[in-house]
Amino acid sequence: MKKSTKIVFLFLLVLTFLAGCSGSPPSSSTGGAAASPSATSATPRASATVTAATPVSTAQTAFRVTSVQMAVSPASIAGQSCGTELTVTYTATFHVVPDQGTHTVQFAYTTNNGRSQQFASLQFLPGQATKTFSFSWHGALPLDHTAPGLGGVLVTSPNQLISTPVKPAGLCTPAPFHVTSVTMSVNPGTIAGLHCGTNLKVTYTATFHIAPGSLGGIIKFGYTVDNGRSGGDNTQTLVVGPGATTQTYSFTWSGVLPADHTFPEPGGVLVSSPNVVRSPLVGPSGQCS
């Protein structure tokens, strides 16, 4: 019994010793009890938001013509007399999508709404977005108002584009009908070398010059073949059409070339309507022999 008591006592002593050496359980314990957090625990990692970068396009914008604006000068011909000489200037402004290259724009232009055309080109430098081109029409303003016509351009390269055509507004006003002058010619121009007594026919031609742009009318005049002594008693009329600027009339003298050289004499005309105009008098030069 005494021996058994000793054995139990020693067993209890060993248990007491082991309990005193055990202390607090280590933090890394994987036992059933939960581990206490360490005072020197690591700082939590910072979170980062990742944004995908927008891809940068390396493709170059294609060079092209986006529009063509047209202007015209003068803007109106209202109040101008028909027949007036006039220059009309058309200006095209080309708008393009520029890039870093040098490009050529090819086009045709017209001043008569496309019935005829001319060809031209413009060079655009890097970054240049606009450029202008001017062309013109010149002529007398017609009574039928067919000119100046519509002017514009047709782009053919690098792309196709048609501008809106423009022309001066308004219409010309018909000019008053009147004769501005009369010029004379004679055939033959000389009788030198002809024998006196020769039968001869001399033709006088009067050219009437009329103000341009009129609606036409009637010219009344008389002519003479005796240096004006008859005073232009041979009254005649000429009908002039709309827009005509010249009209001719011929008359003659026939006879034998006299030895006293009194014939043929200078001839001419005297206009009495629509206004008064006297022509110069002309006759063949030289004398018969």
Automatic annotation (TrEMBL):
<feature type="signal peptide">
    <location>
        <begin position="1"/>
        <end position="19"/>
    </location>
</feature>
<protein>
    <submittedName>
        <fullName>Uncharacterized protein</fullName>
    </submittedName>
</protein>
<keyword id="KW-0732">Signal</keyword>
